[in-house]
Design a protein that fits this description.
Layout (H helix, E strand, L loop, with lengths): L2 H16 L9 E3 L6 E4 L6 E5 L12 H10 L17 H13 L4 E5 L2 H15 L4 E5 L4 H10 L2 E5 L4 H9 L7 E6 L11 H10 L3 E5 L14 H5 L7 E5 L9 E5 L1 H10 L1 H4 L6 H16 L2 H19 L12 E4 L3 H15 L1 E2 L2 E2 L10 E4 L7 H17 L14
Length: about 400
């Protein structure tokens, strides 16, 4: 490497340390069929921990039905064999797409290698194909959505997060005949709040706008069959594209869109992120299919998660902590200081055996750092009690009572 290049990269990393936002990754070994128990390989000896920040929200990644389906799927090959248009269009993948289309009551679905790729490829393709379109994007949209919009180089407007009044102002300012696309999420992963889905759809219909909804933090978790917030609110058939992931509540890997046959066909035919990416291997498709099918007919996991989320929120609020307001399963404990957030995360892991990654800039704005907690049905009541006690201990030890919304502790 040239000396000048090494110096540039060294300076960039030094800047992250100076701004107290250099990211440390904990080395975690998951335990077979024991979620949320895991092993941390970061100290002198491996240490058992409880994982409190996994996006495997329902523990499906270690479900025997899912792992058994994956094991059986290995007989179809360890890899996909190529891209979908050359040699990777497996029967397992087609079965999964049919199941996902049915889940969302859409004509068709397309599976991608990840949710990020699904968003970037789908949005960039759609926007590029619609001449003269203006994109209206929620200010809190995920980086993959932002990347897809930027890649298409279209005219765009950012509306304030979940602000319908601001969105309507922006829509009304455009000529009625101009094509419009509204991109938003249902559940926002760092805030834990939920979009006003019905009102958004009504606004889109009023201004004849195309709708693209990211449901990655909602599929499997909301709706009678786990079809997301759109299913739960009864507006799935009024949203043009629903995008989801197989790597969170479904516990496996991959992303997808569900839409009309025509929409999926143009993305399949024009989207470079779909055309030139190796397909999902059959074993992963089989595992995801088993998970989706199970969560379509089982309420046990969803109800268990909802109960534990409510319990944790209530106990943290009673202890005086400020939680970012939101009705979802995500519990952001606001720390609002990068250094303190990292220190609390380190202490929880090292002293209490509780793994919660600090969420700092650029994932969230500076000054809004937080501990993002994702309780699930596999976290029992005692684990929740112990977690709240541990966070309180960190506040005392680190002399951080200033972060409390109410400066007292529940006895």
């Amino acid at each position: 490497m040239p000396v000048w290049a090494d110096q540039i990269f060294s300076d960039k990393i030094a800047t992250l340390f100076k701004e107290q936002r250099y990211r440390q990754f904990a080395e975690i070994e998951r335990q077979e069929k024991q979620h949320p128990h895991a092993i941390w390989h970061g100290g002198d000896v491996p240490k058992p921990i409880i994982n409190w920040c996994s996006n495997d929200y329902l523990g499906m990644g270690q479900s025997i039905m899912v792992t058994s389906a994956m094991t059986a799927g290995i007989s179809e090959g360890a890899g996909a064999g190529g891209t979908r248009n050359i040699s990777g269009n497996s029967h397992a993948l087609m079965e999964l797409e049919r199941e996902l289309a049915d889940l969302h009551n859409k004509e068709r679905a397309l599976v991608f290698s990840s949710g990020y790729v699904a968003n970037e490829a789908s949005l960039s393709t759609l926007i590029t194909l619609i001449d003269g379109v203006k994109v209206f994007s929620d200010a809190s949209n995920h980086a993959s959505m932002i990347s897809g919009i930027r890649h298409a180089k279209a005219d765009k407007a950012i509306f304030r997060h979940n602000d319908l009044h601001h969105l309507e102002q922006l829509l009304a300012a455009e000529p009625a005949e101009r094509p419009k696309l509204i991109a938003f999420e249902s559940v926002y992963s760092m805030e834990g709040d939920i979009a006003p889905m019905t009102e958004l759809v009504e606004l889109a219909e009023k201004y004849n706008a195309f709708t693209y909804c990211d449901e990655v933090h909602a599929v499997g978790l909301y709706g009678e069959q786990g079809g997301g917030v759109a299913q739960a609110t009864g507006v799935a058939n009024r949203i043009d594209v629903i995008q989801g992931t197989l790597g969170k509540a479904f516990g496996v890997m991959g992303g997808y869109i569900a839409a009309s046959d025509r929409i999926c066909d143009v993305i399949r035919s024009y989207g470079s992120g779909f055309i030139f990416t190796t397909a999902l291997p059959p074993a992963l498709a089989r595992a995801a299919l088993a998970s989706v099918r199970h969560l379509r007919q089982s309420q046990t996991e969803r109800h268990g998660q909802q109960r534990q989320v409510a319990r944790l929120k209530n106990k943290l609020a009673a202890a005086g902590f400020h939680l970012h307001p939101g009705a979802s399963h995500i519990v952001p404990v606001m720390i609002n200081d990068a250094s303190l957030c990292q220190a609390m995360s380190d202490r929880l892991l090292q002293q209490h055996g509780m793994y919660i990654q600090p969420i700092n800039y650029p994932t969230v704005p500076m000054g809004t750092e937080r501990l993002r907690i994702t309780p699930g049905p596999c976290h029992d009541d005692q684990m929740i009690d112990d977690l709240v006690d541990a966070i309180c201990e960190c506040v005392d030890t680190l002399e951080a009572s200033h972060i409390l919304a109410v400066r007292h502790r529940a006895s």
